[in-house]
Amino acid sequence: MKNITLDVKGMTCGHCKGAVNGALTELEGVDNVEVSLETGKVDVSFDESKVDQAKLKEAVEEQGYDVV
Ligand code: 9UX
């Protein structure tokens, strides 16, 4: 299991948080997601044999947010 933190721009309300959380959680191999609206940080723990950082970034971007 690997832990990373994505720096996400543009999340300001609870729906943003839910959208990002849901998009990541539904990915195969994602174990845990923690979204902070205050800091824009999204902690993700995932199985490296099933998913990678690029996929996680893509899933967040598909929801309409920029990942730094
Ligand atoms: Mo809330 Mo987020 O109205 O893009 S869903 S700010």
UniProtKB/TrEMBL annotation:
A GO MF label: copper ion binding
UniProt entry keywords in alphabetical sequence: Chaperone, Copper, Cytoplasm, Metal-binding
Pfam families: HMA
Matches recorded under InterPro entries: CopZ, Heavy-metal-associated_CS, HMA_Cu_ion-bd, HMA_dom, HMA_dom_sf, MerP/CopZ
Major place of residence: cytoplasm
Cytoplasm found in the keyword field: yes
Gene Ontology CC terms: cytoplasm
Domain HMA: 2-68
Keyword Magnesium appears in the UniProt entry: no
Domain of life from the UniProt record: Bacteria
PANTHER family hit by this protein: P-TYPE CATION-TRANSPORTING ATPASE
Name this protein carries in UniProt: Copper chaperone CopZ
UniProt source species: Paraliobacillus quinghaiensis
